[in-house]
Design goal:
This protein is mainly β. The protein is built from seven helices and 47 strands.
Length: about 775
Amino acid sequence: MKSYAYVILFLFANLILVSGISAQQTLVNGFVKDSATGEPLTGVVIYAMKDSTGTVTDFNGAFSINLKKGAQNLRFDYTGYRRAIVAVNPENAAPVNVLMSPDSKQLNLVVVSSGRYEQKISEVPVSMEVIKPQLIQNKNISNMEAIIDQTPGVNVTDDQANIRGGSGYSYGAGSRVLMVVDDMPMVSGDAGDVKWNYLPIENVSQVEVMKGASSALFGSSALNGVIHFRTAYPTSKPQTNITMYSGFYDEPKRPELKWWPNANPGFSGINFGHSRQIGNFDLVVGGHLYKDDGYRYLETEDRARFNINTRYRFKKVNGLSAGINANGMRTTGGLFILWYNDTLAYIPADSTIQNFENFRYNIDPFIVYHGEKGHNHALRTRLFVTDNNNDTQQGSLAKYYYGEYQYQFRFQNRLSLTAGVVATYTDVQSDLYQDRTSRNMSGYIQFDRKFWDRLFVTFGTRFEYFQMDTASTEYNIYTNKGTESQDTITLPFRPVMRIGATYQITEATFFRASYGQGYRFPCIAEKFIRTSAAGLEIYPNEQLQPEYGQSAEIGIKQGIVLGRFKSYLDVAVFWMEYVDMMEFTFGQYGRPLIDPLFGLGFKSINVGRTRTRGVDISVVGQGQIGKCDFTLLAGYTYMDPQSLVYNDSLDTLKNTAKYNILKYRYKHIAKFDGEITYKKFSFGLSMRYNSFMENIDKFFELALPGIKTYRERFNQGDLVFDTRIMYQINKEVRVSMITNNVFNREYTSRPADVKAPRNFAVQLMVKF
């Protein structure tokens, strides 16, 4: 504990020391804007080359800096823009107005997830993919799961995201990929899972997918990576957009799968959003309505969502802003878990369904201050409530409270400091888990430094403490290990760290290497759930231990310019290893003479050490080829996920594979999305490929009808194509025709879960 106290005192002493740096010279004011749009640029780094002092612009693009007497140059640096150098004289009282131009030499993708501040993706030392809102709109996405599943290196198995084979399938409980919305976790307090249909796609500015262990900066559940959903704020010009669509499911290729007697089941929806600035007040409102008759019998969905973002930029306190963001959604429908058999794959087991009514909402008050000397402070809070009700007495009410204070400072020697403290509290009232509480406290610090305009280095560490009922974090340090005087020191927190570097070899070639540690405490559902789903018994495990791991990668990013088309080719070799990995595993956990199925069922247990190695290749590009505009997002990933404690002789009833491969993983996945525009016409093509899922729980093949036969029949993997044709009627109106699963391929994401047949949709988009 003394060591921990010293670390905390050291961090806060540095923060106080840094915050005390000041200068007392003549004040120079000004504004920085985009040369093309006139929009103010926030966060531009301004450096006085003679005085060796600096500052950053606020939300209005304004800045103030104290300078010594005499003429000198100010240097303006902003990610994605050309550097500007402006001569100033402090004795001249006129404001300094600077126009900055975008850098046209490279494909400028700007991200915030790696360092919690804006930086070029070429500087990021880990693999990262960026999804732009245009792709979400053009593919007519009603649920973010579909677009995440289109991302290179990522696949989604029944709502659970899996990056590079780091996760399997956990029956809706727990996630090793952290979903973040505007810098704060958006996972349910009870099951720790992601609600993909809850994310406000009508107000998305960018989605960033960071691959590899990221617990050092984002905390638990970031063991396998982070998906950062960033919402948008308004520009100086008010904007309104409305998207309406309607479609239907085609008949399956196998006639016996068709359960509807007459009209094909359909779906329809509408998204709307409006943003504007009212003086110093920023306002964004949006909504979503969706109705789906369902391609599976009795599985319907009706949902309504409304969201609002507000921010007030104070006039009298330069750089200070505060606001409240909120989102809420009500959903009703039926939940399909397992099929009746492989012939009646769209009919639920026993011809019954779980009917549900869910309501969830989050309220996010925040306050941000950008100081004149580059000292940035942010206080972000969130209340996230999930209220799940159904007709099978499996309801749950979970309240998740989150608070984070973050401090950032950019030194004049290109050293950036990011530090913060986080506290969370979860209160759950449930039929499934009874009444439970959990809490978490953590502190983190990260340093980023750029050397010689070519080398970028990052180092960060985090300390995590968890408590769930009577269980809490314990971390053992062994002294004099292996000797007679060996002793154990038990700390009440778990430290994790990350380190990485990127080196710019040439103007468009970037080499990187990174190493990160991860730590995940089990969620309430994984430890305490006791239920039955479609005849499958699921048992609690109060002795379940946290899992932790580490990941590393070496990669190279190559910029490619072909005329007016700019792209990046990214190649990475990765390695992930977990200790005490948690997985739901089949076995005899109940009482043989009392519980159903003689006590056989599933329980989340620590399965030991695992390792996944592989290669990840992706390409992203945009620009013009001839007279056509073209965008590209594609990738291929090879994975080798293995258990390091595998024993074939003891595993005869658990796995279906004939060799050592982790359950519910693919060895090969490939993704492609390309869109070409000529004048008013656009055409887009998407492709997703997953190799055959070789290993699942053997229980499924032995006990559930048709699974073994189905897997033997469809053992070549899944290859699915989508298309879209768009016509821009005028500047404000566009109409589209979207076809998903063009070749009407029959495929599954997990056993007994056949996905949708070919379906068609017509979309009308209006922007003004």
